[in-house]
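Q&A log
Question type: sequence-to-structure
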Amino acid sequence: MNERFDGSFTQQEAIPDDAINAAVEVMRSGRLHRYNVVDGEAGDVAHLEQEFATLLGAKYCLAVASGGYALATALRALGVGSGHKVLTNTFTLAPVPGSIAAVGAEPLFVGVTEDLVIDLEDLAKKVDQSDVLMLSHMRGHICDMDALMRICDQNNVRVIEDCAHTMGAKWRDIWSGRYGTVGCYSTQTYKHINSGEGGFLITDDAQVMARAIVLSGSYMLYDRHLAGPDTSEFKKIRYETPNISGRMDHLRASILRPQLRRLNAQCEAWNVRYRTVENGLQDTPGLRLILRPPEEKYVGSSIQVLLLDWRPQAVRDVMARCAERGVELKWFGSEEPVGFTSRYDSWTYATSSIMPKSDRILAGLLDMRIPLTFSIEDCALIARIIREEVGAVYQSIPELV
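Response status: OK
Response body:
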């Protein structure tokens, strides 16, 4: 009962030496801007785009300044703007509804299930109110993509996949981001490859990618994109599409290219840690683990559990007791947004009706990062601490039984 964890939940792995060396080369060249290259050279950004597109089997890829910028660019490239409604998850993070609001559109929230994926029954009820769904694979949980795409295809709804938490994940052997019209990814510090900030947009649609490239600020240099469409696609688009600069630079791309080559190994390393925590929490009284269906090949860079129907003070007690022993848990049931746990009723710019089923789930949702700086022994220790503290609070409050 006296065990304590002394690690950091925000300490990421060091950038690999080959990535550091590549970054130093870029800095020595002085050519950081993606279009500042010597004759006959494509540059790190163009090569990174090509490598990411090849990995995922996508026709086109654009590297940008952030995952949130990728989301807003995808919306603009699909023609979404003022007066539009965009379907999106109730359980997501602020950049998702933020990107919708940024283009002048209105988020239309769809509920969450106890498995932390979008509620397909609720989606089916609301799908006729929009022609775009921004699907957030929040915290790495992937819904039944076959069923979701049937609903969307039958109603001519285009899907943008927010894959900030699912780079390297799959549903039925298809990469996350390859079901929808557009897939968007993040390379922010806490994501699966790390450039501090950054992102990708992929698609097989030549016109969508042409618009995205011009939106990102191509200055008519779109012929330098190795993973872009034929220059004929830009003939009209280049005159009618505004420049909303958000390009990735060579410095970040140089850091990401070596990491991308290690992505599969990194994903497996996360999953070993995830399963260690998950196994340690099995059959904890009062605690519900999240079902991961066999079709989902997830990346366990974080873990979520539910204390369903617990009183708020009891959840706070669990968090406080774990914190005293060095384990940092986030709670989506807090009345005030804290850190990365804001929720649909926190965003006053996005009007929404009360969603009791979703509120019940969010009220019991605890969330924890699993950095790769944790050892397997660390993960086992963390699970023991959470198990003990949940059990202690659960046994002390008869109303929870």
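Response note: The chain has two domains: 17-261, 263-400.
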